[in-house]
Amino acid sequence: MGHSLFNGSVMWSKTYSFTSSPYPGQNSIQRVIVFGDMGKAERDGSNEYSDYQPGALNTTDQLIRDLDNIDIVFHIGDLSYSNGYVSQWDQFTAQVEPIASTVPYMIASGNHERDWPNSGSFYNTPDSGGECGVPAETMFYYPPQNKAKFWYSTDYGLFHFCIADSEHDWREGSEQYKFIEQCLASADRHRQPWLIFAAHRVLGYSSNSWYGQEGSYEEPMGRESLQKLWQKYKVDIAFYGHVHNYERSCPIYQNHCMSKERNHYSGVMNGTIHVVVGGGGSHLTKFSQLIPYWSVYRDYDWGFVKLTAFNQSSLLFEYKKSRDGKVYDSFTVSRDYRDVLACVHDSCEPTTLAT
Ligand SMILES: [Fe+2]
């Protein structure tokens, strides 16, 4: 990579190499990393004025160490916590450069990228420090229909991703809701069986302490509209950040666990597994004392998720801690296309007398 200066000389970067992405539906092994809320830290401890993201370097280093076994990364919001200071963006991009120069570094928008009072964000909080999404939209590539509206769909081999923007309205009737339905509906499950939804805030399920105090176990108004879309289009896994810990749910349909199985799902899935993976690096979030019935695994620590699609019918999910890179929670999914097609409650047209 390089650019020419006004005096005609050319500046070159170090030399990097990367592998081009598999085409949609390509049947090869594909490994996907997902986490949120990583942020940055100084390796020498300098300028560490608040130590706000104490796990950031551990997560970054584990990913760099395993880079030969990673194909694409999704950092689902709260990227750098720059909060209006562009030097902090420089520091963050330098930190993730070994990763982002080698594999696609896909992002979602979080409150620390976007929110600012009266700027059009869904929440009137000052969390972006006045950035209003502009640095994030400018520094990273992502394929939205409109850059200021940070929702997009993307394909990676056997995966179809629908990335939502929880800093803009997602409720039924909104522009984003229409997009989410169209994105989920357009997945060709025969060729791309693994359908993944992601958003920064917890639009699904989390038992962190403040959601527990509210009794909602979600971001207010989070899943009321979206649940029927996840169900209708049989989303396999929904990922969230914002809450700085790790939690995995059972396969959920209409607030009910559809399976008591914890580690090996086979055949018809019957529900969506919701995963909070916001422990990328920022200070940790406590869980509620009550453990909801749908909560399968909770971890108060920093970590990230790795998905491995071996082919169209076999998926491995692993949660790894950033401190040691070891797997602490995992499950597998084994199923065929006919299992995706199978009718689950309201996911098929109502039957007629003739049937
Ligand atoms: Fe956040």
UniProtKB/TrEMBL annotation:
A single MF term (Gene Ontology): hydrolase activity
One protein family per Pfam: Metallophos
Domain Purple acid phosphatase C-terminal: residue ranges: 271-330
CDD domains, A to Z: MPP_PAPs
Needed co-factor(s): Zn(2+)
Alphabetical UniProt keywords: Glycoprotein
Keyword Cytoplasm: no
Keyword Signal part of the UniProt annotation: no
Domain Calcineurin-like phosphoesterase: 31-246
Alphabetized PANTHER family for the sequence: INACTIVE PURPLE ACID PHOSPHATASE 24-RELATED, PURPLE ACID PHOSPHATASE-RELATED
Protein name: Inactive purple acid phosphatase 27
Species in which this protein is naturally found: Hibiscus syriacus (Rose of Sharon)
Lineage: Eukaryota, Viridiplantae, Streptophyta, Embryophyta, Tracheophyta
